[in-house]
Amino acid sequence: MSHQLKLSESSTVISDTLYFERRRHPRHRARGQVTAVIREPGTEDGPAKMLTLDLVDQSLGGLGVSTTEPVAVGSKITVFFPPHGPEPGFDLIGQVVRCRSNNDRHTLGILLSEPNAKLAG
Fold this sequence. Notes:
- The chain contains no helices and 8 strands.
- The chain is mainly β.
């Protein structure tokens, strides 16, 4: 399976539309598929679940992704970004802070454990 990652240019900043917006970093649109390993709360000793995620947006402190399966808020997640051109692949670790369902898709908000300069745009 071939994954393609395309982080959009920094000129595609997504403006916040809600007056109570709490994001600390500007979001940028992102495209591509990545693989993630998820450990839901209370299953730290059990098997992990693997999912394919479609990137929606990214910022220095988090990711917005879409997937076909719901994921429990509080789940620990490791997202694997494949190599892209001359850039090596990298992994990001975080926690699911939001899961919104719409028909057969689920949009996740992921708070990264450490802000990542690779996602700064």
